[in-house]
Write a structure and sequence with these properties.
Elements (H helix, E strand, L loop, with lengths): L7 E3 L4 E5 L12 E5 L6 E5 L6 H13 L3 E6 L5 H4 L2 H8 L2 E4 L5 E2 L5 E4 L2 E7 L8 E5 L4 E5 L17 H16 L5 E4 L8 H24 L8 H9 L8 H15 L3
Parallel strand pairs: 4-5, 5-6, 6-7, 11-12
Antiparallel strand pairs: 1-2, 2-3, 3-4, 8-9, 9-10, 10-11
């Protein structure tokens, strides 16, 4: 599948992606809603129902119904609206329960195992993009569903002040461990295409974060530290070649980087 042709569909034996109609600079092709089922199973887990779009939710329901199954759990990788806004409506449509971190639903904890018939999905805490970010290990397919922690294209934002860089770097290290021991070979992200070389993508993310931090340090040394608005000073020096529509996200990442470096 070419980089420009991502449209979802049946991606692994147990994972089907329904692409939400919300493309954009931050959402890439749109939000990936993941339907997880055992082959021949009658129960499904749906991860990130996405924005509140009735047509999209009906398409997700149709995928499940066509497989002769029903949704038993609606699960969120994190609380951003492009992933979670439709959760209450989708849970109502499917009579399923909502599972998420710290949202007053059926809260998720690291190591929890979600079951739908014979399907098993393990919760892997990966905070950093947001404080409530989690990933889900689909071990039978050697896949990890990462929400916005790792994207299918480009890199993600550390959404300061809720997101925190030290936690994000630790989460990348944890995912690297999963890819290094062979437990995870592919990544099913919240946006963009599936990644079949999980180890290479995580290595790219870790290198990118190290390089960005070094660029921020250099920008501070070059004068940004003395400017009234350090964030704008770093933005102009480090992110000048980034499209302006993603500058609001870049500012959040810069604030997270400055906080990590202890710069006030």
């Amino acid at each position: 599948m070419s980089e420009n042709a991502w449209a979802g569909g049946q991606i692994t034996t147990r994972a089907h992606c329904v692409l939400a109609p919300n493309p954009g600079a931050m959402t890439l092709d749109g939000t990936n809603t993941w339907v997880l089922m055992e082959p021949g199973g009658t129960e499904a887990v749906v991860i990130d129902p996405g924005p509140l779009d009735e047509g999209h939710l009906q398409r997700v329901c149709r995928v499940v119904a066509d497989a002769g199954a029903r949704v038993t759990q609606t699960v969120l990788t994190h609380g951003h609206h492009d992933h979670a806004e439709a959760a209450p409506r989708f849970a109502e449509l499917t009579s399923s329960r909502i599972r998420a971190v710290g949202r007053g639903h059926d809260d998720l904890a690291d190591g929890d195992v979600l079951r739908a018939g014979a399907l098993e999905v393990r919760v892997v805490a990966t905070p950093g993009h947001t404080s409530d970010s989690v990933s889900f290990a689909l071990e039978a397919d050697s896949a990890l569903l990462t929400g916005d922690t790792v994207l299918g294209r480009g890199t993600t934002v550390v959404a300061h002040p809720d997101g925190e860089l030290a936690a994000y770097l630790a989460s990348l290290e944890r995912i690297a461990d999963l890819t290094g021991n062979g437990e995870v070979s592919s990544i099913l992200p919240g946006h963009g295409p599936a990644l079949w070389d999980a180890s290479a993508m995580v290595a790219f993310y870790r290198t990118h974060r190290r390089e960005r931090l070094e660029q921020v340090r250099q920008a501070l040394s070059d004068g940004a530290a003395q400017e009234p608005d350090k964030v704008e000073g770093v933005l102009q020096r480090v992110y000048a070649d980034v499209p302006r529509e993603v500058w609001p996200a870049a500012r959040m990442s810069i604030r997270a980087q400055l906080d990590y470096l202890g710069v006030r």
